[in-house]
Design a protein that fits this description.
single chain; 117 residues; alpha+beta; 4-stranded antiparallel β-sheet; 3-stranded antiparallel β-sheet; 3 helices; 9 strands; globular
Length: 117
């Protein structure tokens, strides 16, 4: 199994929404309208986040984001006693340095995906 990059943040997206972003030129998520930001996770948080909010869900991709390339502000804010990165604006596509398929295993649990070589 691969390990998450320590200097990156991650966002779980539907493959359909990601493909739409590629056509549109930037990634927008419904949480921008409802919460004012796009929810992200650190490498150490992403598997717990997926297992909590997306159990057994297929058709997902994991976006690996280089915070230094993000055009929108990133703030680390408390959620349930843990600091999570929140992206306050659209995600520019050139900040996404890797897109990994993110399927659950046979039991519906997520694990950090293997990187394609």
């Amino acid at each position: 199994m691969s390990e998450p990059a320590a200097d990156r943040i991650y966002h779980i997206a539907s493959e359909k929404t990601w493909l739409e972003a590629l056509e549109f030129g930037e990634y927008l998520h419904s949480s921008l309208g409802s919460d004012g930001f796009i929810h992200c996770s650190t490498g150490g948080q992403v598997v717990r986040t997926a297992n909590r909010y997306f159990p057994g869900q297929s058709g997902l991709v994991l976006l690996e984001i280089d915070p230094a390339l993000a055009a929108s502000e990133i703030r680390y804010e408390d959620s349930g006693g843990e600091m999570f990165p929140h992206l306050y604006g659209p995600l520019n596509l050139d900040a996404v340095v890797d897109v990994m398929r993110f399927p659950p295993d046979a039991q519906g649990d997520f694990h950090f995906p293997e990187r394609e070589v």
